Amino acid sequence: MTTDVLEPKEAPRERRSPAPDPPAALHGRLLNVSRMATIGEMAAGVAHELNQPLTAIANYAQACERLLARPDSDPADVREGLRQITAQATRAADIIRRLRDLAHSQRGERCLAAINALVTELRELIQTDALIHGVTLSFELTDGLPQVLVDTGQIQQVVLNFVRNSLEALSARPIGSRQIVIRTEATPERAVRLAVIDNGPGLPAETRQRLFDPFFSTKENGTGLGLAISNTIARSHGGSVGYQPMEPTGACFFILLPTEPGQ
Questions:
Q1: What is the distance between the alpha carbons of residues 32 and 79, in angstroms, rounded to a whole number?
Q2: Model-level pTM?
Q3: Of 2, 69, 81, 208, whose CB is crowded by the most CB atoms within 10 A?
């Protein structure tokens, strides 16, 4: 007589749902989504900005070719054409570098920075985007502001989010009357205030309380991430964001950043 020995069956493993990401990781991913969306919206302006130096390079190269084909060409003219090609290539490389910096998904180290310098670094990109949308852009940057301890890339993302909101709000106004002002100033509460102000239609009172809520958007195809991410960035820096209606019409989005003690 034989006896069958049955090996004990392995108990079925319990299927576990993947552990939720920690808040910091989720915030990092949402920030990256917001940054990519902003860069995508700026694509037309970026293409226009890149087209200018590339066109100049082609024109100078053709001019150099014509000069070299002439028996009486002046080498100094050819050298000047080559210098211009180098300058325009450098300009194109700078545009790409700025975009690469904006697209960088890793969180940067915080450092003391001048808020006006952060705005100035974005000036060409924002100016080009404004021209594409028929908007007059002006800067009112207060001199001598105290420095702030910030992740520079994140604060620049807030500026871009505010500007993109204003550009979209101004689409209903006729070209020639669209205006945006970027303003920096100190506040009595020992903070630096950076504001983006437009003369668009503004926002109805019933939507103002939810402006910075995730996934809330007044735009038909909006993601509702830009202002929510801006709010999270400001709070992580010990600051805040806000909205203020303008008279007779318009909107002001601002971020408040605390200054370092003793400055």
A1: 44
A2: 0.61
A3: 81
